[in-house]
Design brief:
By secondary structure, the chain is of the alpha+beta class. It is built from 1 helix and 6 strands, in the order ββαββββ. It is globular and about 30 Å long.
Length: 73
């Protein structure tokens, strides 16, 4: 069963339609991020994949957009 998560799209670290390119971006940017938080790869309704830091997850549906969790990194 797919898990839905809420994020503000403006907080995305990166986005791409190719999940393997997004994984590569996650690896390249891991040293540049200011926190040591893990990231989530999520997918929107159009098939676009996005990276978010877990700490940026929203709990209020009015403040965040719903995505399908693909992977915790």
């Amino acid at each position: 069963m797919a898990e839905d998560v809420l994020f503000n799209p403006g907080n995305a670290i990166a986005s791409d339609f190719d999940p393997s390119e997004l994984m590569r971006t996650a690896q390249l940017t891991s040293d540049k991020r200011t926190t040591n938080e893990k990231v989530m790869m999520v997918k929107d309704e159009n098939g676009k994949h996005l990276l978010f830091e877990i700490g940026d997850q929203e709990s209020d549906p009015d403040k965040g957009k719903k995505y399908t969790l693909e992977k915790r990194i």
